[in-house]
Amino acid sequence: MATRPSKVTPIGDTDPFRPTRGRPVRIRARTMRADSHFEPHSHAWSQLAYCASGIVQVTAEREGTGSDEVTYIVPPSRAVWIAPGARHAVHVLEEAQFRTLYIDASVTPAGWSGCRVIVVSPLLRELIQALDAPLAQPASPPARGIRKDREASLTQLVLDEITHADIQALGVPRPHAQDGDKRLRALCEAVLAAPSQRATLGEWAAQVGASERTMARLFRDELAMSYQQWRQQVVLAHALPLLARGMPISQVAAASGYASDSAFTAMFKAALGAPPSSFQVKGGA
Question: Are 244 and 236 in contact (CB under 8 A)?
Answer without folding.
Answer: no
